[in-house]
Design a protein that fits this description.
heterodimer; A: 91 residues; mainly beta; Folate-binding fold; 1 helix; B: 1000 residues; alpha+beta; FAD/NAD(P)-binding domain; 5 domains; 22 helices; 50 strands; elongated; binds zinc ion
């Protein structure tokens, strides 16, 4: 049960948030031009890293905003939190 | 006073007698006793039978590690609690306790026969025995296992007690109120930090509070006296909350901890006064100091489980804290110095005591103290056997060989009525590891100690591996100062004098003359696993400690192996010839001690279990005899029985009325999302499969929403209210998820779109009127409105006024009938509904519920997302190609519709099914096959919706069948338990394929 520093609201309990999986996977602008494999890469393939991972989180029971978070999945240490559209920090 | 209550202490008030019953017999104890100390004061050791062999077992400890003395409290009442540890139950007037796992009685136990056939119940017995033949499983093995499984009896009635939750934040949380916890809490609180100190016993002080030995001196006082003063100082501090009777249950990441406070368990029934029983504290602490202490280890030797064999420090606590002697003729069996404190205490009270020590010598002060008193010490000796069935009577000892691997010389028999054992101490590292901390193995005294890495918690005192008083006091002071960044600890100049252990020796499994297979050296007392079982598991090829644990069930009882885990590890290491530190430990999982379900759920019981959502028309439904069904959190009318109709009869009547004249449905629960913004049309165009850019203002359109994987996610009608304004409806259950999904796309993929979403589900109430007479009823309700097909066509909407209330009327249909949905602000929902009922009276307007709604739409072949779909159905599978735009470049899920897998022709596809016997109704979920004789039988699909249609006068069903699109007219079978039902694949639109009724 970690504490997340929502970039809009500040520190809140993890129970207010939901995780939306790996971050920085951009929906292809021209899906119809992709092969099955390329589309599958976007649709299904996720890294699921043990260690530092860039993730999407939603303050579901708060401001309802989506944002990005860098979390070490092996110890839940949160390295950074940043808004959608902002550049990912170098960790 | 009984003959075992030999000492007066300040902790037990011997002027206040408390009576209680054990196994129906009445006894007396005193205020301040635990159930265990009161039983022992009455000379009762035998309190239970072991799990597997039903061996007689006695009280073995004085705390939460107790494996044997577990009782059923208040049996046969709604307050009953199984598996309560007698060592932790505070005695109160009228307490009723009974032993567990004994039938027919504690003293005569039939299961004891297992003890005699123990050779045939080795490790993995259940896995090996109950395998074969398969047919025996259901009727013979399972009932047999269930009969003998479990310890106590679960309550059969609802729990009448109240439980509570509380959130708390603090600067420092100190876990454990022994000497190191007290020092830590004092330093923190005196430095203006908001501090909470929790302690699972009813008073602070740990084991130092009864340490009256002259070899343990702090600032020239006996350590117990010194600590007593410290506690009274502590109680005066403002920044400190002290919570006794509060045990830590879990230590999660980010210093989030759960602690259970026992509020009224120790009170007599008539004094509870409806008070809360337990409170679960949810604590977020900036810093955590773990001072959880250590647990004394038993020694593992043949027949080490007899009643009267007790951990040595527990014997001291019973004596010096409760004033109870566990025996009058004691032997102490030890591998370390701490048990000598017990010996001295016993001797000073005039009780006979002898010592058996596996070491060759020890020259510490406390050993000298015992020696000087003339206590007989058998050095370099081990116990090889014990005697006495229901209570220990004597022991046999032998000398150890030079290296301790064997025994030598003659057996020597000694009489006793109590054997105190001490195998050293195990630091309670549970909290540390639960929080993610790692452990190091310390070779010299064979303990796992915390590796300190966290910035946010430390371990102090004996849970950190500091066992000597001087280390405990000084290290705690220094560590806490550093941890909290404080200059002055307050204990910097303290002087501590204590006996120090010089000789250390540990043998995990003590040697014997008898072969191992004939000994019973218990490791896990509660689950009855022995050293022999562990060795067998190793011989059978189990290597990982986690596997050995599960195979032998060591450490898997309600005490979670607090006494057994280390010995299991030690024996595995010795047998396998590896270093113990290299094995690791099993995982310590929360809770540390069992939690009641009540404490976990708190107030969230009964009507607070989940939120109940009711529409504003709910009361009308109740008054009109509706039966309700739960749809998500909503209560929706299911059907409205008249004159004792059953579900089927009511639904038949309601469905017929809706098609023959008029029906009315409360559709308020449908999800409603208000969509505004200059890009609203473009947004809908990307979200739905069909085209949305050209929908006229005032028009409605049905839309299907997919996941990016092409599978149907939700559906509903969306109305264009204005140039940049839409009202979307979703399924009742999907509303929250749809909103969240749409927000996701807006915020992350398409932030350039100017669109705003607002959930308005609760803001509007909806009455849906359908049937051939619905237009007439609407005319009565809105006399000034033109309801002609030209002025108000199907799939359009108009504003209107009823009783000065603004409303929106949508002419849309989920039944295939001419149909109108009237929406008003929720607060007017009930009056709107009553107006509709009144206006419809002359047409016998019939309220119908969800069941009839489902039947009506099935007649028309309309799907219900979540019933006819399951997250694996594309719109093409559903034969809804018509709604998938070919022209649009993109929409959510479009690309996935052209994946090789989604284009397979043998996917499950939606079809209609007609039973050959029109009165036979299929079961929803039933499997469908094409060939009955083919083995194995190939399931080609299943029934998703099935009803008897009163309007068609036959049974109809929707189903998904592999390649079903091309199977129209084909005969298939639905095999049931005792018959095969013949069915024919049909069109899934059963009624009015030409859509005539919609404009009737
Ligand atoms: Zn927020």
């Amino acid at each position: 049960m970690f504490v997340i520093n929502c970039p809009y609201c500040g520190e809140r309990d993890q129970s207010e948030f939901s995780c939306g999986g790996e971050a920085h996977i951009v929906r292809p602008k021209q899906p119809t031009e992709l092969s099955d494999d390329e589309w599958a890469e976007y649709l299904f393939m996720r890294k699921n890293i043990k260690g530092v991972q860039f993730e999407r989180w939603n303050h579901a029971h708060g401001c309802r905003k989506w944002f990005n978070m860098v979390r070490d999945t092996s110890n839940d240490k949160i390295h950074a939190v940043y808004k959608m559209g902002e550049k990912p920090p170098v960790i | 006073m009984t003959k075992y209550r030999i000492n007066k202490t300040r902790f037990v008030d011997q002027t206040k007698t408390v009576s209680f019953t054990f196994d129906g017999k009445k006894y007396h104890g005193f205020e301040g006793d635990t159930l265990a100390s009161a039983l022992l004061s009455n000379g009762i050791h035998l309190v239970g039978r072991s799990f597997k062999y039903h061996r007689p077992r006695g009280i073995m400890s004085c705390g939460s590690e107790e494996p044997n003395a577990i009782c059923q409290i208040n049996d046969n009442t709604d307050l009953t609690e199984p598996n309560a540890r007698a060592t932790e139950i505070e005695l109160y007037e009228g307490l009723k306790a009974s032993s567990q796992n004994c039938w027919p009685s504690l003293n005569f136990d039939i299961g004891g026969i297992n003890n005699l056939i123990a050779t045939f119940i080795p490790a993995g017995f259940y896995y090996k025995t109950f395998m074969w033949p398969k047919s025996f499983w259901k009727k013979i093995y399972e009932p047999l296992i269930r009969l003998s499984a479990g310890l106590g009896k679960s309550p059969t009635q609802p729990d009448p007690d109240i439980y509570d939750h509380k959130h708390e934040h603090c600067d420092v949380l100190v876990i454990g109120g022994g000497i190191s916890g007290i020092i830590s809490a004092k330093i923190a609180a005196k430095n203006n930090l908001k501090t909470i100190l929790i302690e699972d016993k009813n008073i602070l002080g740990g084991s130092t509070i009864y340490q009256n030995n002259k070899n343990f001196i702090i600032d020239n006082q006996k350590s117990n006296e010194w600590l007593m003063n410290e506690i009274s100082e502590l109680e005066k501090l403002d920044n400190l909350i002290i919570k006794t009777r509060t045990s830590l249950a879990a230590f999660h990441s980010y210093n989030y901890l759960l602690a259970k406070e026992n509020i009224s368990d120790h009170l007599p029934l008539d004094k509870k006064n409806g008070s809360i029983r337990q409170r679960l504290w949810k604590i977020r602490a900036d810093k955590v100091i773990v001072a959880a202490g250590a647990i004394e280890r038993p020694l593992i030797f043949n027949n080490n489980d007899r009643p009267g064999i007790i951990l040595a420090n527990s014997v001291k606590k019973y004596l010096d804290f409760y004033g109870v002697s566990t025996g009058l003729n004691n032997i102490i069996f030890t591998n370390n110095d701490s048990a000598y404190e017990t010996a001295v205490s016993l001797f000073e009270k005039g009780i006979s005591v002898k010592i058996v020590d596996i070491r060759k010598k020890s020259s510490s002060n406390i050993v000298k103290n015992a020696d000087d008193l003339g206590i007989k010490i058998y050095w370099n000796s081990t116990v090889v056997n014990t005697f006495g069935y229901k209570k220990i009577k004597s022991i046999e000892i032998m000398n150890l060989s030079e290296d301790g691997s064997n025994v030598t010389g003659n057996k020597h028999k000694i009489q006793c009525d109590c054997l105190s054992i001490s195998g050293g101490w195990t630091p309670m590292v549970h909290m540390h590891t639960q929080s993610g901390g790692k452990l190091d193995f310390r070779e010299i005294d064979q303990v796992f100690v915390p590796t300190e890495k966290s910035e946010n918690h430390i371990n102090v005192g004996s849970c950190n591996g500091d066992f000597e008083l001087e280390e405990i006091v000084k290290n705690t002071n220094n560590k806490v100062k550093k941890f909290l960044n404080i200059n002055e600890g307050g204990f910097d100049k303290i002087s501590v004098f204590c006996s120090k252990e010089s000789e250390k020796k540990n043998i995990w499994l003590l040697p014997n003359t008898i072969s191992e297979s004939k000994t019973k050296s218990f490791i896990d007392f509660q689950n009855d696993s022995t050293a022999k079982d562990i060795k067998l598991a190793l011989r059978e090829g189990f290597k990982s400690i986690e596997h050995v644990k599960r195979y032998t069930t060591t450490g898997m009882a309600t005490d979670q192996g607090k006494l057994s885990n280390m010995h299991a590890l030690g024996i595995i290491a010795d047998t396998a010839g590896v270093k113990m530190g290299s094995l690791g430990t099993t995982t310590f999982r929360p809770p540390f001690t069992p939690l009641t379900f009540g404490a976990i759920v708190g107030r969230s019981v009964g009507k607070f279990f989940d939120i109940v959502r009711k529409t504003s028309i709910h009361e009308w439904h109740v008054q009109n005899n509706a039966k309700f069904e739960n749809v998500g959190q909503w209560k929706r009318p299911w059907y409205y029985p008249i004159n004792n109709e059953n579900l089927h009869e009511a639904v038949q009547r309601e469905s017929k009325a809706a098609r023959d004249s008029a029906g009315i449905l409360d559709a308020s629960t449908l999800g409603k999302i208000d969509i505004q913004g200059s890009d609203a049309s473009e947004f809908l165009n990307r979200v739905y499969t069909n085209a949305w850019l050209k929908l006229g203002i005032g028009k409605c359109r049905y839309g299907l929403m997919l996941n990016e994987d092409g599978m149907v996610y939700d559906d509903g009608v969306t109305t264009r209210l204005g140039e940049n304004h839409y009202l979307m409806t979703t399924t009742t259950g999907g509303a929250a998820n749809v909103l969240s999904k749409l927000e996701d796309y807006l915020q992350t993929e398409w932030p350039e779109l100017d669109v705003y979403l607002t959930s308005v589900t609760d803001h509007y109430s909806t009455a849906s009127i359908c049937g051939p007479n619905s237009k007439k009823i609407l005319k009565k309700l809105f006399p000034n409105k033109d309801f002609s097909d030209e002025a108000f066509p199907h799939m359009s909407y108009q504003d209107a006024i009823i009783d000065k209330i603004e409303c929106r009327i949508m002419r849309i249909s989920f039944t295939g009938e001419l149909s109108y949905e009237i929406n008003v602000e929720s607060k007017y929902g009930k009056s709107l509904w009553e107006n509709c009922i009144a206006a419809g009276e002359e047409y016998k307007i019939t309220p119908y519920g969800t069941e009839t709604m489902h039947l009506l739409r099935a007649e028309k072949g309309f799907i219900i997302v979540g019933q006819d779909t399951d997250g694996t159905m594309t719109p093409i599978d559903l034969q809804m190609d018509w709604i998938v735009s070919k022209k649009k470049y993109d929409f959510i899920g479009k690309r996935s519709l052209y994946r090789s897998d989604t284009m397979r022709e043998d996917r499950k596809q939606l079809v209609g099914l007609l039973t050959d016997d029109p009165n036979e109704i299929l079961e929803e979920g039933a499997q469908i096959v094409s060939e009955l004789d083919k083995k194995p039988v190939e399931m080609i699909g299943h029934v998703t919706s099935s009803y008897f249609s009163p309007n068609l006068n036959k049974s109809i069903a929707l189903a998904v069948v592999k390649g079903g699109k091309k199977m129209n007219g084909q005969k298939l079978f639905v095999p049931m338990e005792n018959k095969n039902i013949n069915v024919t694949v049909s069109d899934f639109i059963f009624l009015d394929k030409e859509n005539k009724r919609i404009n009737a």
